[in-house]
Amino acid sequence: PPLTGHVTCQWLCVLILCLLPRFGWAVGYKQGDPVILYVNKVGPYHNPQETYHYYTLPVCRPKEVRHKALSLGEVLDGDRMAESLYNIRFKENTERQMLCKLTLSEKEVDQLREAIEELYYFEFVLDDIPIWGFVGYMEESGFLPHSHKVGLWTHLDFNIEYNGDSVIFANVSVKDVKPEPLEEGGGGHGVGSGGLTVTHTYSVRWFESTLPHSRRAERLRDYSFFPKTLEIHWLSIINSLVLVVLLLGFVIIILMRVLKNDFARYNVEEDGGCDDLDQGDNGWKIIHTDVFRFPPYKSLLCAVLGVGAQFLTLVTGIIVMALLGMFNVHRHGAINSAAIVLYALTSCVSGYCSCSFYTQIQGQRWVWNIILTSALFSAPLFFTWSVVNSVHWWSGSTQALPATTVLLLLGAWVLVGFPLTVIGGIVGKNRAGNFQAPCRTRNIPRQIPQQPWYKHTAVHMAIGGFLPFSAISVELYYIFATAWGREHYTLYGILLCVFAILLSVGACISVALTYFLLSGEDYRWWWRSVLSTGSTGIFIFVYSLFYYHNRSNMSGLVQSVEFFGYSLLTAFVFSLMLGTVSFWASLAFIRYIYRSLKMD
I need a surface site. Which of 90, 180, 497, 577 has the fewest CB within 10 A? Predict the structure, then answer.
């Protein structure tokens, strides 16, 4: 055990160090110092997750390709940076410098033409600043006769802004540059039996900026190579907030008035003990000897609650880190690294919550419960990743993870995540007390009367899922535009408010639906409370289908498999979080109402 703990601590340090490479200080340059430009990736403009290494295209490249050491988050983000032939020196302008001369074969010309027709863009990185541009130019004009022109940009103008000894911003332009024609059938300049000869050139221009290095992220946010969809949407948020407050007020006021009448009626009629069957009564009081009867599939229920608590902790931690400014547009993949580290660290939360409650409700197979808790999310994640990664590997995309990264992530789970789950489970089992139930449960379960259609599980799931979804529907669009686009989300204060609204609505709706269930003398609330609000995940996945077809231009097998695979996982995570919140809200509500009855 000491050796295992030592290995776990070592891997924990490795995971934390994965966050550090991108949290560096400003790089200081002197006049004439080389500023390295890294080439990174190319891909279709409308498919953000379908990316390929820049050198897969027939472009200028060094004889020996040297790759940059990347952080875990950058690798997960599909970055594969390599040094380029561009010779850029600090504060030294360059005009029409030749990069290289290439003779392209017919196959290579066809490859470039296909990339340009699919609107391929490239991404370079200079001093952690991403630089985007299109590989070529395409023009469609006329119907009869139809004109289809495809051209390759062979000259790039780099515009770099600096302040003192640091780089502030950089972009690339092709203004006043004529593309090299790549006509169908090899009609471009320099075409012969030997292929198409092209000469790549570049210019570098430096401009002084007054923006300090600490604020250079603002300059990148103001730049718009990709379409801007994120705006300050206070009106929509205020509208959602008002609707949510009205909804919660309505539920709370109505429920409290009904409960007040119930308490008055039940306590006046009370003339027996807690074990009396109260045959003349009806409503939620009559099932007081069954309402705390433990549910079936106890281990699975506790695993859901444990993993849900883990993700509640993880999401809150990421939002707090974002509010502290730990993620910005220059830290490639920092949020991915943070999510990996936090997932490993919060595994103890899932083990503790699951095994503690499992012991309280008299579960006996606690070892199996820990294993189930550990696999409840990691198994679907591994299956989804395997399918998505296989598709990326088959297509040659940079989104396919290298073997070293796969081993690192596997080691993180085996040597950090799983041991912390076990440790949390053992601590939870040993510290678990007795289940606090106001009334004793009878051995013989009471027969449940036939319920009307509007109290069935499917109806409760539709109501309990739609209302929380409606509270976040506005913000959900911006989250999707960030996750499946190239936007950098910065409205973390709003996101925290919306997250709190989501949890509040889920808790209140679950309490209301649980009351209606108990008032019909149905005591099967355990799983119902989890499913009613947890069904929000279904609405989120349906919204992802709508977003894919109506709000994005994504297409192709590679992008579609990644989008739907990880959208399904996201919906599952929301179901776990909201199911956990609604269960604990319902349990607290039930304990409150049965404690408030005058039963000796």
Answer: 497
